[in-house]
Specification:
Blueprint lengths: L1 H20 L27 H5 L3 E3 L7 E5 L13 E5 L8 E7 L12 H8 L1 E14 L3 E9 L8 E4 L25 E7 L5 E2 L4 E4 L12 E6 L2 H4 L22 E2 L11 E2 L7 E11 L4 E8 L3 E2 L3 E4 L3
Parallel strand pairs: 12-13
Antiparallel strand pairs: 1-5, 2-3, 3-6, 4-5, 4-7, 5-6, 8-10, 8-17, 9-16, 10-15, 11-14, 11-17, 14-15
Length: 316
């Protein structure tokens, strides 16, 4: 009998916790019937150390005084990884100090993922990749020798050297219901400027860079809703082609007219895509900030998150 009692106690405790923390206890907005379609339960992914230290960032250009000059196998080897020795050009190095190796990037893709992307990115700064953490093991008159202790990607000559900074760990909230069709709350908002590796569509675990930062009160640990406006597809030169279909259904007597222009002569229902509800597509946790930008990791997504999607501070 004792065995049964000891077995049931942790089970009952788990049920009690589940009842207290269940997302179904959260209030539902007036005029809403909560279903798995409009109020799915979030299952968030916690950032790992690699997610934090390999995230990269967008900010104003860094000075190029300290940089990687090569390694012990130069010039025969131009890419260096964990455990290898590299030579650092510049001044101010001391044995035992840690530094981060970063790379100033350029996007080889010259196609804008949303109108005005290039201008908005230029105004925010430059994209940088975080490559490795190194420790100075020796100094010489013109260069320092460092050992790569942790690498996200291979290090190459010309990569920049900046002081190492500890990353702040992120505290996560319990499972919550995600209000997929929530109205704009009036909180701090912006948009996704770029994504890591210049991706255009991302899922859970992806890294994005947004055009709001510490100057707007954003801090590490804040959560942003990623949302797509109804007009977003209609402004895309490729995706909007589906709106120009002659008919959605052959049996309709008067097919609808989507975003009518002066040339349209249809008599069917008129649909304006900019009046469609904004659609929540995921949630992003902030893992790094600069004055004008922030780096975020997608911790929950219902569908692919796009570069250009709107983001808004989530007060949940």
């Amino acid at each position: 009998m004792k065995r049964a009692v000891f077995f049931l106690l942790p089970l009952m405790a788990g049920l009690s916790w589940a009842q207290q923390g269940t997302p179904s206890d959260e209030p539902t907005p007036s005029g809403t019937v909560a279903t798995v379609i409009n109020f799915p339960v979030e299952k968030v992914q916690t950032p790992s150390a690699a997610d934090l230290y390999c995230a990269g960032f967008v900010r104003k250009p860094e000075p190029k005084k300290n940089y990687v000059a090569g390694g012990s196998e130069s010039p025969f080897n131009t890419n260096y990884g964990n455990g290898e020795a590299i030579y650092l050009n510049g001044k101010g190095y001391e044995a035992g100090q840690q530094y981060t190796i970063i790379r100033e990037l350029q996007d080889p893709n010259r196609y804008e993922l949303f109108p005005g992307q290039f201008a908005a990115t230029k105004a925010a700064g430059r994209p940088y990749e975080e490559l490795a953490r190194v420790r100075i093991i020796d100094t010489r008159p013109h260069m320092a020798i460092a050992r790569i202790e942790f690498s996200c990607d291979s290090v190459a000559p010309g990569d920049l050297v900046v002081p190492f900074e500890e990353k702040t760990l992120v505290n996560f909230h319990p499972p919550l219901r995600f209000d997929r069709f929530a109205l704009a709350s009036g909180q701090v908002s912006g948009r996704i400027l770029l994504a890591k590796d210049f991706d255009s569509e991302l899922g859970t675990g992806g890294t994005v860079y947004v055009n709001i930062g510490a100057n707007q009160g954003l801090k590490v640990g804040d959560f942003l809703r990623a949302e797509r406006l109804g007009s977003a597809v209609s402004r895309d030169p490729v995706d909007s082609l589906s709106f120009r279909a002659d008919s959605y259904e052959m049996t309709q007597n008067e097919p609808p007219v989507i975003n009518p222009t002066m040339l349209d002569r249809g008599h069917g229902p008129i649909i304006h895509t900019d009046e469609m509800p904004r659609r929540g597509v995921g949630e992003i946790v902030i893992i790094g900030t600069t004055p004008a930008t922030a780096t975020g990791m997608i911790v929950f997504s219902l569908e692919p998150v796009h570069v250009g999607d709107v983001v808004e501070l989530d007060q949940q």
